Structures are given as C-alpha cells and as structure tokens.
C-alpha cells in the first residue's frame, strides 16, 4: 500500500520520519526542515502512516509489520533504494522497530523518539485516553468550533483538541473526521500489544538508539537499563515530555544529526 507522503530536501541520504498515533507526517515537518537545512545531504520522506491523515484506512489484519511494509512501499515509490535511516516518534518508532525485523533490507539504522520496544501498558498510553474521548465525540459537527467544544467538554486540553481538529474535513453539512475512528481503535490495541524487544536485542540488527523525554512515562528506567544492556544507547532530555520534538526542538535536531 502506498501512503500519502511528502518529501523534504534533495540530498542522496534517504531517511524516513514517522509520526505518532493520531498524528500525520506534518507533525515532524519542522524537524525535517531544520535537519535538511543543516544537512543538505538528507532526503527526508514524511508519510501519513496507515489509517492516519489522508492515507488509506487500516485493514482488519493491519499491524506494525504491515504498516512497516506500507512505509517501505511508499519509500520505494519515491525512489528510495536500498536501506535507509528510520526516525520514529512513539508509534512511528514502533513501526521502525517492526521494519528492522520484517524488512531488514530497508533499514540502515533506527532512531527512537521517546518510545521503548516493549508492549505499551494501557494505563500509560496517552493516545489510548485521547482515542477514548475521540470515540465519544460525534462523527460530525456544524463547524470546527462546535467540535472543539465537544472535545474540550470531555476533558481534552485546548492545545490537544486543536491538534486533533487538524483531522477534520469540511463538507456541505459541516465538518467530519477524516479517519475511521473505530478502525484506528482496533489498530491501536494490536500495535500497543506487540513486543519488539527482539529488534533491539538480536545480534545482527541495525544500530538503534533512543532519546527519552524524562517527563514522559513511555520509556521507563527498566526500559533504559535493558536497552543500554542490548547496545542501544539512550540519551535524556530532562525537561521534555513525550513530544520531545516539540518540547526541545534544538536538542532533538542535534541528536538526530549525530
């Protein structure tokens, strides 16, 4: 499956950058633009992952491995040959790890933005809580302001609500969600339950590293200890939360360039 995507940069070092759950490729555009400006050798592909943005909806059997294959198919369609670098935030990081297991010929190295290889516990999944509220919201509303009120009235913050509203499309009768919320809910349970430690702990895998936001709960101290023991270095951003690229853009740029 070929995904909706766009390119940043015109270099010859192929790199894919993958967003988190409920996001789109646009979430990493600022980081990609800064990276390309600082390192013109990069050619960066930012897809909307399966079921996200304007990409096709997930199938009933879609999982992290099929999502990784969709990214590779999209990269190949854009002229990316051989192996390339993968940078993934949250869900995007898990798709990158799945790629290193399922399509290793397409993976040169993996950089994880605040995500660990193990299954994501339900009580730690911020995206799961947001998805629950999203499922309670109406499928349509008169306008964006009305839908915003629906989300904030159910407990979402205004910034998070505005971020989700980027997934609305305008119709003759108002606005409606671009994605299939129920299909995403089913996908969410499958991808969060997958154990990907083999991608980090196998001896013949590509180089993998992680950048943790210390105010986030997605990468635990136990995760850090296990990753480091497996040869996956972990660096820390003490003042950053889960969205490390938003909280500390300069530091994240310096890290991905190293």
Automatic annotation (TrEMBL):
Gene Ontology MF annotations: hydrolase activity
Keywords annotated in UniProt: Hydrolase
Record carries keyword Hydrolase: yes
Superkingdom of origin organism: Bacteria
Protein's UniProt keywords contain Hydrolase: yes
Annotated SUPFAM superfamilies: alpha/beta-Hydrolases
InterPro entries recorded: AB_hydrolase_1 (IPR000073), AB_hydrolase_fold (IPR029058), Epox_hydrolase-like (IPR000639)
Annotated AB hydrolase-1 domain residues: 16-254
The protein's name: Alpha/beta hydrolase fold protein
Lineage: Bacteria, Pseudomonadati, Myxococcota, Myxococcia, Myxococcales
